[in-house]
Amino acid sequence: MFGSGLLKGLGITLRHALGRPVTELYPFEHKNPPANSRTFIAMHVNEEGAPACRACNTCIVGCPDRVLKLVKDPDDPKRAVEFVVNSGRCTYCGLCVENCPFDALYFTQDYERATRDKGALIYHLIEDGACTHEGEVDRP
Amino acid sequence: MVNFPRKGVEGSTETMLLNVGPQHPSTHGVLHMMCEISGETIVSAKPVIGYLHRGIEKLAESRTWQQDIVLTDRLDYVAQFSNEWAYCRAVERLAGIEVPERAEWLRTLLVEMNRITSHLIWYAGVTMDIGALGTPFIYAWVARERIFDFYEAVTGARVMPNWMRLGGVHTDIDSAMLKEMRDFLERDFPVEVDEYEALLVGNEIVQSRMKGIGVFSAEQLVEWGVTGPALRASGSERDLRKDVPYGVYDRLDFRVCTDDVGDSLARCRVRLAEIRESARMCVQIIDGMPGGDVRAKVSRALKPPVGDVCVRTESPRGELGVLVASDGTTKPLRFRVRSPIFYNLSAMPHMLPNHLLADMLVIFGGIDTSMGEIDR
Amino acid sequence: MTPEVRAVLARHGAVLDESGFDPRADVARDAWRACAADLHATGARFFDITAIDRGEAVELVLVLVDTPSTQFTLRTSCPNESLRAESLAGVFPPAEWGEREVFDLFGVVFEGNPDMTRILQPDSSTIHPLRRSFELEERTW
Amino acid sequence: MSAAMWIHALLWLVGLLLLIAVVTVMGVWWERKFIGHLQRRRGPLHHGFHGLLQLPADMVKMISKEDIVPDSADPWLFQIGPLMVVVPAIAAMAALMFAPGFGLLDMNHGLFYIFAFQTLLPLGFAVIGWSCASKFTLIGALRAAAQLISYEIPMLLAALGVVVAAGSMRLTDIINAQAGVWYIFKEPLGFAIFGIAVLAEMNRTPFDLPEAESELVAGYQTEYSGMKFGFVQLAEYSVLFTGSYLVSALFLGGWNMPFLPASPLWLLLKIVACMTMTMWFRGTFPRLRVDSLMSLSWKWLLPIALVNIMAVAALALALPGIY
Question: Is A19 in Cβ contact with D283 (below 8 Å)?
Answer without folding.
Answer: no
